[in-house]
Amino acid sequence: MELSEDFFAEYEGFHEGFFRVAKLDREAIESYFRGFMGTPDHVVYVAIDGEAPIGYITARIQDQDTHWAVRRVGHISGLMVSRDRRRQGVGRELLHAARRFFGENGVQYFTVYTAVGNRSASEFYRACGLTPLHTNWLGEV
User: Which residue, among 9, 59, 5, has the nearest Cα to 35 in the 3D structure?
Assistant: First the structure.
């Protein structure tokens, strides 16, 4: 719960309007993680130190429409490491576990979403060999 609260709090800092969390409670968090368990195309890995979770990654596989040559794509929807455990290899190990999951399931490419302003995450992903793919633009009505 604490890691998820930290995850959303960090994202709110990158754009107060768009990333604002309306309601974050234990039930919502548990429902989110349950959605990644018990299906072959979704997975959650949790890094634990003793009995305390210090990081997690959620990953899923999506089958694309038939007009795409790349039929299965992996998506990382959340990667979080507690602030006091960053830069110690926890994130790399979690990312490695997700890559292994993708590879074992016939996925060649995967995506990860992060806010443009999240420079430390961008530096981390570049250091892990990922490259920028596209940019989403945000407009207001």
Answer: 59
For 79, the enclosing helix (H) or strand (E) is strand 72-81
For residue 74, how many other CB atoms are within 10 A of its CB? 23
* Measured distance CA(32)–CA(37) in Å, rounded: 9
Task: Determine the distance from the C-alpha atom of residue 13 to the mean position of all C-alpha atoms in its chain, rounded to a whole number.
Answer: 17
CA torsion sign for 131, 118, 116, 72 is: positive
pLDDT tens digits, 106-115? 999 999 988 8
The dihedral through the CA atoms of 36, 109, 6, 53 has a sign that is positive
Contact 19, 139 (CB under 8 A): no
- Do the Cβ atoms of 36 and 74 come closer than 8 Å? no
pLDDT in tens, 59-84: 999 988 889 878 899 999 889 998 89
Sole residue written with tokens 């830069």: 87
For residue 101, what pLDDT band results from cuts at 50, 70 and 90? very high
